[in-house]
Every structure is written in structure tokens, then in C-alpha cells.
Amino acid sequence: MSRLSLRGLSKIYGNHFHAVRDLDLDVEGGEFVSLLGPSGCGKTTTLQMVAGFVPPTTGTIMFDGLDMTRVVPEKRDMGVVFQSYALFPHMTIAQNIGFGLEMRRMKRPQLRDRVDEALAMVRLSGLEDRYPSQLSGGQRQRVAIARVLAIRPRVMLLDEPMSNLDAKLRGEMHVELRALQRRLGITTILVTHDQVEAMTMSDRIAVMTKGGIAQLGSPQDVYDKPTSEFAFRFLGHTNVVTGEIISRNDRGLIVRVGSTSFPIENGKEHVGTEIKLLVRPERLRIGDADGGNAKGRISTRLFLGGVWLYEIDSDIGQIRVSSQNLGGEHPQEGEIVGITWNAGDLLAIAAENANG
Fold first, then answer.
1. Going from the N-terminus, what domains does the chain have, and what CATH number goes with each?
2. What's the predicted TM-score (pTM) here?
3. At residue 356, does pLDDT exceed 50?
């Protein structure tokens, strides 16, 4: 298992545009790390620098303790799966998978064995004589993965490889690829803008913005314990309300939002500070109008199968609540309800630091 280390990695285009800015990241051997963020955040440029396709302006790329910063791509022992799959249409599936091995001048009997092994790994045995145009999108993606697996790279780089698949097939491939990566123990970096994809597959997620890493941690940590409004908003739906700290006690802070006051557990700001409060819709509960932390009228109710989604005009602003569908009766549009939460479910961020 191979360890990858990025130190002070930057890429500047022209004189001013920093695509990546002083990025530090360690990826342990056998680990699956996702670079997650919106378009233009620097995730693809980072992957291209790791692969050797784009030279960094500053910084180093270390691979098992060796400096690979200026090493050409073909000598980095990395396999890349591209968004477009990059299959040769005039070659059979077996020829596509064996292409990298031919470039390495592998002998024919060994090459055939390696291709057969890669086909079996991605469950495409028996399709080796077909052409890419004869396969489904999911099968073509498996061929692209098999081509990488055939060369047995020490690091696998995935550049949004599932963005062209439909939602159902994409979910299936998340499970298959993750299971395969775990079984083979290949150190892997995935670039994606899909939060579900990152949370499903990763050991750790690097949430990126403005060319740097805003937060790095396990999927549960970055979702449940975001350190900025950006991270909170980008991962899942988020309710945001503005309030003011009116007092502090041994258990936390007392916050006033509009005419409503309630406690929160986190936050180090001073009394009188204006703050933003962020809370996930699934952490909120609705019930009797007089039994909640806040009160509101349901303006919209949507049924999504497994959950009910409510938009509520409340004492503290417009709030979205996600409620698991357990059967039985559910509140109707126009109904007055109480909204309840646990004090620890609200994240407090000083208003001036909220976009960090």
C-alpha cells in the first residue's frame, strides 16, 4: 500500500488566478479520499498535478517518501479513470484493457491472463470481444476501471468517473467500486462534486473551496461537525437563521432569534455577538403547536417516499424539516405546529466568519 503526500501544492495561471493554493494533504496507503467541492474549487487541478498532467507552480508531491513532483506521468505508477472513460472505439474490450500492458511490453500470455483477471474483477468476463459501442454506460465504466486495475497501479485516480451514469446505476457503481478498492487495497483519490458519492465511498473527504481544503475528515465528521457555513451548506440541506447571543451559562449560550430565545451548546462568541445558527432539516421535529422551541405554519408539504419534507414559516424564519415516513397521519399544509430540536444540533458561527 502506497502513501501519497502533498505539501504546499499550488497552481497559478497567468499572474493572478490561483487554481490551487498552498494545499497540504496526506493519503495513507490503501485509503480512499475524495476531493469534494463545486466547479472551480481546484479539485480537478489537484488531481491533474498528482497524475503529472499539470506541473505545479509550487509545492511537492511525495510518493512513499520519494519526490515525484517533476516525474513524467508514465513513470508515476498511477492509474487514471476519466469522466469520459477514454476508451478506444476501434478496439475490443480486451484490447482496451490490455493497452496499458502493451505499452509496458508485457509478453502476450501474461497479458491475456492479466486482462482476464481484470475482466473478472469488474464482472465482465465473456464480453472481451465486444466493442465499447456495444456496451451500456455502466459496462463502459467498468472497462475503464478494469484498464486501470490491469496495470496494478499503486495509486488510482478517479476524475468524476460516474457523472455520465443515471442515478440508479451510479448508486450501484458506488458500492461495487468501493468494495473492489477495499479488497485490492489500492490507495485512491476521487474527484467529485456529488456529496452522496463522496460520503458513500470515502474513508475521508476533503471539502474544497477557493483552491484549498475547507475541511478534512471522515464522512460523518464533515457532515455532523462542519467547521464553516460553506462546509455545512455544501454537504446536505441546511437551515440558516441569524440571531444574537444574549447570555452565557455553564451549559452553553442563550440565543435570541426574533422574539424567540433558546439555548445552544457550542459557540465561543461573546454576549451581544451576532451569529448564524445552522441546523440540518432531519435534526428538527414537528409536533403540537405549544410544545416546541419555536412555532410556525406549514406552507408546503412534499412526499418523497421515505420522508416527508416540510417548509414552515416560523417564529425564527423559514425552516425546512425532514421527517421520516413511518406511516400514519402527518401534519397538513396550513397547520400550526411546534418545531423542536436538541441544543447540540445547532451550530453557531459568528456572522463575520460564517463564509470561511
1. 4-233 (3.40.50.300), 237-353 (2.40.50.140)
2. 0.85
3. no
